[in-house]
Write a structure and sequence with these properties.
Length: about 180
């Protein structure tokens, strides 16, 4: 027995629907706007008062340059001003900057700070940077010994605790042992 042949309308639907779908997909792909979508601003962002609308002749994606914002008088002093007042802050800023690029410079700066400032309130923080620099130089034993000394000298200092944790040192609890 022969299968019944589809009628003309049915044949048109069987052939026409897939062709229409292909044509619609091609229209969507070729008709798509090539400009990137504008970036959405976070809901918490407030519009600035001095913002100027972007000109139509500018290429999309190039934001206008904002004018420099004046520093409010009530804001805290920047680190550079604090570094001018506190010589140890200058050493710490330079040590942090040199940690990734030149760990030997961190050691030289720590030695100079120790000579000039001695056992200052931020000595443990300098020691923490020294431990990290020693690890970067693959001087692990020396870094571990220095971290142990730090935690003994400054048991309550967060920087000393951080250096000890960085080296995997667990300080002994203080008080009577059981």
């Amino acid at each position: 027995m022969d299968a019944p042949r589809p009628s003309g309308t049915r044949r048109a639907l069987i052939i026409g629907l897939p062709l229409a779908a292909i044509a619609a997909a091609a229209f969507l792909v070729l008709g798509r706007d090539e400009r990137p979508a504008p970036r959405a601003r976070p809901a918490s962002a407030e519009p600035s008062e001095d913002a100027t609308p972007q000109e139509r002749d500018e290429p999309p994606g190039v934001p206008p340059t904002p004018p420099p914002a004046p520093a409010p008088a009530s804001a805290a002093a920047p680190e550079s001003e604090a570094a001018d007042k506190d010589p140890e802050a200058r050493f710490l800023d330079r040590m942090r900057a040199a940690l990734t690029s030149d760990p030997e410079e961190v050691l030289r700066l720590d030695d100079a700070a120790s000579r000039e400032l001695g056992d200052s309130p931020r000595a443990a923080e300098r020691g923490q940077l020294r431990v990290r620099a020693l690890v970067r130089m693959d001087r692990i034993g020396e870094a571990r010994s220095f971290a142990e000394d730090l935690i003994e000298r400054y048991p309550d200092d967060p920087a000393a605790k951080s250096a000890a944790a960085y080296m995997g040192i667990h300080p002994r609890p203080r008080g009577p042992s059981r």
